[in-house]
Amino acid sequence: GGPQGWRGESRGSPQQLAERYADLAASHSEALRQREEREWHNARLRQENARLRLENRRLRRENRCLFRQALLGPGPDKSPAEEAEALRAQLGRLQEKHRRALRHLRRCRAAGGPEASGAEEGELEELLLEEDEQP
């Protein structure tokens, strides 16, 4: 007879069954090979991920350290005299900016700029008087 039902009965010649079995075995072997390859690749990616996490932590620490240095200014490698000189220079620059701002305010005021509120006007007067009193 020809092809029959499914319960243990063959559907084709023994040669066809052998070919189908060989195809299934080859497909199964290929699936196993691909699975092993994926597992190997995933293991490599996990290792790379761990390495990158460590590098990221190191860079964060370095970044915090650099940021702290920028906020705190020069470290102990400067002598107290050098640090005092740097602070004096910074104070001089800030005082010069303050003087220029006050000159600008005077010019605006003289040109009839927008009226300031009472509190601002009093504060401006105070600043201008302080500036006039300084040598």
From TrEMBL:
InterPro entries reported for this sequence: CCDC89-like
Entry coiled-coil feature ranges: 42-104
Organism: Rhodinocichla rosea
Region (Disordered): 110-135
Keywords: Coiled coil
The name this protein goes by in its record: TUSC1 protein
Keyword Coiled coil: yes
Annotated Acidic residues bias: 118-135
